[in-house]
Amino acid sequence: MSLPPETAAPRAAHDVTHGDVAKGAGAALLSRLGAVIEIVAQPAYTLMFGLATYGLYTVLWSLVNLVENVADLGMTSALQRVVPQAASEDAAVAALRSALVLALVPCTLIAAGASIGAPWIADIVNVAPADRPALATGVALFAWALPLWAFIEIGTSALRARRAFGPEIRLRIVWEQVIRLVVATGLWLAGVDTLGLLIAHLVSLTITAAACVRLLSRYYDLRLLLRGRRVPGMMHETALAGLSVLPSNVIGRVFSDAPPVILNLLIPGAGGATAAGLYGIARKLSSLIQLVRMAFGYVMGPLASAVARHDRRAIQPLYGFATRLSTVLALPIAATIIAAADMLVRFFGKEAAPAATVLIPLAVARAVEAIGGPAGAVQQVASKRLQPVVNSLSGLAVAALVATVAFAVLPDVGPVAMALAVGAGLVVSSGFSVWQLHRADGLNPFFPPFGRAVGVALLACGAVFALLEATRLLPFAARVPLLPPIMFGGLWMSVRYGLGEADKDAFGKLAARLRLRRPEPTTINPGRTPPLP
Fold this sequence. Notes:
Layout: H1 18-31, H2 33-49, H3 51-71, H4 75-82, H5 89-116, H6 118-124, H7 135-142, H8 145-161, H9 168-189, H10 194-219, H11 223-227, H12 234-266, H13 270-308, H14 315-339, H15 341-345, H16 355-371, H17 375-382, H18 387-409, H19 414-441, H20 450-470, H21 476-479, H22 483-498, H23 501-504, H24 509-513
């Protein structure tokens, strides 16, 4: 007999179910919807400030992300490994304190150096002539986005390490994205051109960082941050956990943020800023597919860490479920983006039309990557520390080789060549993660019923493609309203028929609301005479 709720035994930290994975991924997806708002805001930014200025903003923000991922010494990943295994609140807060010290000190010093050296940095960035006068000032200001972003990344990582996936919703959507759009619009109306986007970004990061402190106080005893007892070895353990995954984190960020910077440096003048802008548009749109994989990565990291401490074999069913769910969600989204690429880039203005060709290879690569599920996140917390480095270096080597060939064959379409190279690298890196987990740890996500999941997802992709191709007969204004229902219809078909009943149990009441289950058969009471028709 089950205990009443008030006396029921609490679940152990390592007692993780499919429902925990689904609930956490749902909350993480909601928290990452800030990226969707960002995608919606990008057309407004290009229309207000122009494609070249948007390209400059893309380059500077990419540089901040690249530097932050090196200077934070891998602390965001370290917390996913250390905090779930902490034996006490003192130990958990000590890990957070160690991460903040190890990351913020170098980021602050680098920001100060970049701010002082802004005139020299401005000389090597290719921009439109209209953006040149304010460029040095913009670099000096925007350099301080580095420590702000490092704090936000560590803070939100600390929340996820406590399985608090939902609180990011307010940070990522309300504060970071909406305020950025509001401030940018206000500055544009006030006549601020080049600096408008940069200042708006700094304001939104500052408010987000302040909100992050308040949220951290709900899940950690921040009084211990300064006055807590010293936990021997915690600084070393946190540093080792971060440094072990730092190379793979950096290479992953290189795939995302280095291409706009490289294109800007290779193509002189306004052409470099425009090329960076085109690639930035394609990258933002393809990131809709990446959101699914990132959500499961965020969830599976701390959950797998908690499980691995007690029984590594328990990771297998969670890993397989997350991979099936990632597949049935990501593939219909990818099909929609690929089939409607020309329509999507039109929202960014006529200058953005070439971005459609850049978008397609990136979307294909993100779709293949999603089929591999959260392999990278599981590997970071459950495998040998050097394995993620090998995977990332393999992907980077392939990307460099493809880039060399692609730029030689397609010298006039740099963004397309870059997209092909990045796509090849992403696929190889993801494939190596899946292979190594299977070979070294015996974890295989492709056991039945994965075949059903991927088969139905591909059928849903075919339906999405066919319907979107049919809409080409309609005017643009009539095609746009049809895009969301076609995509969501493909998603429903993929989830409804691609997942087994056991998998859908993890959705709880949501499965019934979305009609994901087969209707229960009606039974006739044999003691009654059925009514006449």
